[in-house]
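Below is a filled-in request sheet from our internal design queue. Each sheet records the structural input a requester submitted and the sequence that came back. We keep these sheets so that new team members can see what a complete request looks like end to end.

REQUESTER: design group, bay 2
PRIORITY: normal
MODE: inverse folding
CHAIN LENGTH: 367
BACKBONE (tokenized):
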């Protein structure tokens, strides 16, 4: 396990190095620039942009100047990834149908621009996704909304949350369930950002996520509660004929800063909370872990987020190898598990191959 933890950063660094070399070589060829200058330019740009993504949530970026620096570099990071993919695609076409240097360069620039703009705009516009789920013990149909990974901060503000709330209020949902990562940075961390929650037409319940913990979990929970949203801290409540149990993320320490909390956390929570045997039981937890323990405890539906479904290509190809439950609906015995792709983004404000989703869960009695 220790060796794997060391190998992953080395492998990541090797991939980045090769990518910078490849982009630099092709750019030097396309625009008749000395390769050395391209190496220096793209190496510096890559280092700065990836540093901005990794340091995105730091309190040092909460000032206006650092906010704009962070936003710019995160956009650049997304464009660099798209540029790499565009060059690979154009090179593949060039192997089959040889292209002139001018056409190669213009095709790469146009493709990068179109795909990058699509990715940024697609991420900024959440879509309502409807999912039907049959539950035992449910006497009549009820619709609930799941919101997850909104990631308010540098790229998402109160205006984005208002857009989400307007869509939620347009549905026939009776309950809103929020499964964490409401915030991801100190920028926009204020009661005004959460003001749209006060206009929700139905009761709402919240469990925190890991990025809420990295930011300021105590303040976030207080602001959420002040908006009339019920914060669940390892407790169960009854609402509209269903039982809702919310498990919080454990306290963030230096040892757990970037770790996904595992099965032992869920097992420990279940020792202190008894799930209902009579009412349909819905469990909320930010990260889709410990499903086997939740299934054994008799829950009917487990809602989580955290994974973003990979957020953008090519991470969408590998994300399922990191998470047993990556996105969408799963079944484990009598337990059904739904993992939201999230209503926002983290780091790079781009989606390609996934959606920013607002999930309308139509819960129906089991036939």
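RETURNED SEQUENCE:
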């Amino acid at each position: 396990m220790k060796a794997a933890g060391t190998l992953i950063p080395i492998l990541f660094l090797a991939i980045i190095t090769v990518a910078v070399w490849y982009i630099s070589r092709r750019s030097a060829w396309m625009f008749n620039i000395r390769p050395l200058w391209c190496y220096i330019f793209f190496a510096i740009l890559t280092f700065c942009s990836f540093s901005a993504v990794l340091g995105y949530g730091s309190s040092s970026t909460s000032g206006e100047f650092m906010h704009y620096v962070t936003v710019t570099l995160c956009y650049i990071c997304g464009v660099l990834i798209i540029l790499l993919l565009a060059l690979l695609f154009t090179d593949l076409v060039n192997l089959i149908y040889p292209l002139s240097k001018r056409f190669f360069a213009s095709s790469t620039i146009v493709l990068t621009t179109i795909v990058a703009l699509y990715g940024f705009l697609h991420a900024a516009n959440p879509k309502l996704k409807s999912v039907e789920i049959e539950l035992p013990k449910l006497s009549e149909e009820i619709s609930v909304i799941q919101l997850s990974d909104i990631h308010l901060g540098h790229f998402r503000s109160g205006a984005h949350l208002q857009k989400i709330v307007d869509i939620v209020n347009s549905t026939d949902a009776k309950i809103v369930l929020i499964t964490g990562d409401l915030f991801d940075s100190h920028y926009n961390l204020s009661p005004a950002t959460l003001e749209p929650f006060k206009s929700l037409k139905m009761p709402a319940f919240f469990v925190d996520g890991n990025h809420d913990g990295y930011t300021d979990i105590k303040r976030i929970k207080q602001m959420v509660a002040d908006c009339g949203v019920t914060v669940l801290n390892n407790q169960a409540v009854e609402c509209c004929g269903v039982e809702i149990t919310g498990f919080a993320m454990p306290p963030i320490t230096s040892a757990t800063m970037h770790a996904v909390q595992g099965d032992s956390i869920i097992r420990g929570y279940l020792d202190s909370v008894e799930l209902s045997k009579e009412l349909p039981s819905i469990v909320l937890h930010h990260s889709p872990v410990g499903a086997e323990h939740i299934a054994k405890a008799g829950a009917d539906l487990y809602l989580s987020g955290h994974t973003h479904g990979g957020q953008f290509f090519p991470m969408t190809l590998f994300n399922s190898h990191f998470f047993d439950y990556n996105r969408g609906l799963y079944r484990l015995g009598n337990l059904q598990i739904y993992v939201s792709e999230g209503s926002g983004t983290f780091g790079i404000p781009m989606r390609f191959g996934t959606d920013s989703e607002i999930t309308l869960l139509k819960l129906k009695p089991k036939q």
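SHEET NOTES:
- Confidence is low (pLDDT under 50) at residues 254-259.
- The longest strand covers residues 127-135.
FILED BY: M.R.
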